[in-house]
C-alpha cells in the first residue's frame, strides 16, 4: 500500500513537472530555460491569468490522461514481473543506485555482476520508479526468448529516425523477407574477397603504404551490389528506402561493435603478455615466408589460439551487453504467464559472468575456455556476443574475420603493452566502451 501511494505521488509530480515545462508556468521554478522572470513578465502573466485559464483546460485533461497512462503502465509492469525475484527496490531510484551511477557510470556493469551472483537465472530490473523489465541471465532461459522472433523492445525506437526500418528494428513478415534477401551477402564465398580489404585497412592503420595498395586487385561483389540485386520469390527487390535503412543499419552495427571487440581484445592481450606471446608465435608461423605479410582467407582458419583469445575477450566484454525483446503474444516463462507488451532483457554481460555457467573464476581471462574440446560441452546460448537464435547478428562471421586479421597483423609488427596509471573500466553506451577509453602502447618488434 505504501508503495502504491508513493507511485501515485510520483506519477502526479512527474506529469505536473512535464506540464509545467511545456506550458512555461514556472510553478516548479522551471521557466524559459531556467531564467528567472522579470517583474514586468510576472505582472503580464498575472493580468493574463483569467484570459488563459479557459485555454488550459484541454492541457489539464491531457495531464490527467498522461498520469492515468503512466500509472497503468507501471502497474502493468509490476503485475507482469511479480512472480520473478527482485533485488531491493527503492521507491524513487528503483533497483539501481542512480546517484552513484551518475558519478560513476561504470557502476552499472559492476551492479550487474553483483546481481547475477545473487540471482543466477533472472531478476527484475527497475530504472527509477516507472521503468521495469525482466533480466534473463542464464543460457537455458535466454534460449527460451532468443529462439523466437519477437521484435525489439520499445527502448530501441529512438534509433528509428537514424536507422530506419532495417534488420535491427523491423519485425514480422518484413523482417523475415529482408533477412532472407540479405543472408546471401554473408555467405563464405562472398566474404572471401574482403580479407584483402581487412589487410589494406590494417596497413593504413599501421602506416604501411596502405594507400598505394588500395588500387590493387580485381572487381568483386560488394554489399551494395547484394542490396541492389536481391529479389524475393515474387521478383520484388528492396525499395530505395529499405536499401538506405539496411546500409545505415550495417554501418552502425558493423562499426562500433567491431571496434569495441578489437579494442578489448588488444587490452586483454596487453594485460596478459603470456597469451599475447603465444598468439604472436602462431601468427609468425602462419606468415612465415610471406613478403607482403598479408593474411589470406585460408590463413584465418589456422589462427586457432587467436580465435580463442578474441572469444574470451568478447565473453568478458561483450560488444552489445543487453538485447531486449517485447512480448507480442501471451508467453509462458519459467512456468509464469507473461502478458503481451512485457519486456524481457537478455543480459549477455550477466550470462557471460554467471558463475553457475563459467565457474568461480568467471572474471579471469582464460582463452582455453574456447578450445575445441571445451566448446563441445558448451551450451550454445552461454556465449552470445552476437545474440543467438533466428535474430542473431547476420554479420558475425564478417566481424570475427575482420577482428582476427587486424589483431594478427598488429601483433606481427608490434608488442602491445598497457599504459601505466590509465584507469580502464567497462561502461554501457550503445556498445561496451571503456569509461576513459582504452590506451595501449604499440612497441615495434626488433
Task: Write down how many β-strands occur, each being a DSSP E stretch of 2 or more residues.
Answer: 10
Q: Helix-strand pattern, N to C? A: HHHHHEEHHHHHHHHHHHEEEEHHHHEEEE
Strand order of the largest sheet: 1-2-6-3
Q: Can you say what the CATH homologous superfamily of the domain at 155-444 is? A: Cytochrome P450
* Number of distinct helices: 20
Please state roughly what percent of the residues sit in beta strands, choosing from under 5%, 5-15%, 15-25%, 25-35%, 35-45% or over 45%. Answer: 5-15%
Architecture of the domain at 155-444, according to CATH? Orthogonal Bundle
Q: Which runs of at least 5 residues are low in confidence (pLDDT < 50)? A: 25-56, 209-218
Structural class: alpha+beta
Rg (C-alpha, Å): 26 Å
N-to-C span: 72 Å
Mean pLDDT: 83
CATH class category label of the domain at 155-444: Mainly Alpha
CATH topology of the domain at 155-444: Cytochrome p450
Q: How helical, in percent, are the residues?
A: 40-55%
Largest sheet: 4 strands, mixed
Task: Label the overall shape.
Answer: globular
